[in-house]
Amino acid sequence: MIHNKKKCGAAKRAEKWGIPHCYIDHKDEDHIIKLLQVWNVDLVVLAGWMRVVSTDLINAFPNRIINLHPSLLPKYKGLHAIEKALESGDPMTGVTVHYVNEELDGGEIILQEEIPILPDDDLKSLTKAIQRKEYYILPKAITLLCP
């Protein structure tokens, strides 16, 4: 696992489960590409990356990069998707796993799951509901792509 924050929850979980991981600054994509190539990865999973990846990375792993996004794409692309859904008055939001291409949150959708926006939801409660759904949908998508 590669993480772009020195201290993050994913690194702590990786440590707990004995998963090799390392910190690499997101600006050093050449290093990231080389490392992923050395590891001969089948799939690059962006979860909590929160950065737009370069064309170089996309070209190095064509149709092998997926992203987890906290909305029912194509609605609410980019940052602050949960806030946008909450403010919209929509009865539903959700989570999307999609392929990464050069368009921000514009790649082909692999899986989506809906989440109701409850009348008493606030940013904290809706974020928590979305995170629970993310923990469910991401492994499901990976299993679908790498049986």
Walkthrough of the structure:
The chain is α/β, with parallel strands linked by helices and 147 residues long. The chain has 5 helices and 6 strands. Helix 1 (9-17) links the parallel strand 1 and strand 2. The chain is globular, with a radius of gyration of 16 Å. The mean pLDDT is 95.
List keywords for this structure.
147 residues, alpha/beta, two-stranded parallel sheet, 6 strands, 19% strand
Helix content: 25-40%
Strand content: 15-25%
Largest sheet: 4 strands, mixed
Radius of gyration: 16 Å
**How do the strands of the widest beta sheet line up side by side?**
3-4-5-6
The mean pLDDT is 95
Briefly say what this structure is:
This protein has 147 residues and is α/β, with parallel strands linked by helices. The protein has helices at 9-17, 29-38, 55-60, 81-88, 123-145; strands at 2-3, 22-23, 44-46, 65-69, 92-99, 109-116.
